[in-house]
């Protein structure tokens, strides 16, 4: 299962389970939010690690960049990259 699939599954579970949803939202207050988020994910049986979440955002951004006008130097500028942790929480 890819990191994107695990994030989708975790989000689905959180929408069905209010306690899980609150635990995930409260990771924002942790000393290391992404690490705490991944710890909870692993408790749910979804082995998701911080670098996988970070890389998923970077890979998504790179794919978008390549898809615009062939991804050459003349492709439109894309700002930043997607932070899938923040996008996940916003989706809850």
Rough shape?
globular
Please provide the ordered H/E string of secondary-structure elements: HHHHH
The overall pLDDT average reads 82
Strand count, sense and closure of the main sheet?
none
Number of helices: 5
Please count the beta strands (DSSP E, at least 2 residues each). Answer: 0
| Strand portion | under 5%
Instruction: Give helix % range.
Output: 55-70%
Task: Please tag this protein with its features.
mainly alpha
Description:
The protein has one domain. The chain has five helices and no strands. It is globular, with a radius of gyration of 15 Å. Residues 74-78 have low confidence and may be disordered. The two termini are 21 Å apart. 64% of the residues lie in helices and 0% in strands. Helix 1 (3-16) packs across helix 2. It has 92 residues and is mostly helical. The longest helix has 18 residues, at 50-67.
Task: Please give a quick description of this structure.
This protein is mostly helical and 92 residues long.
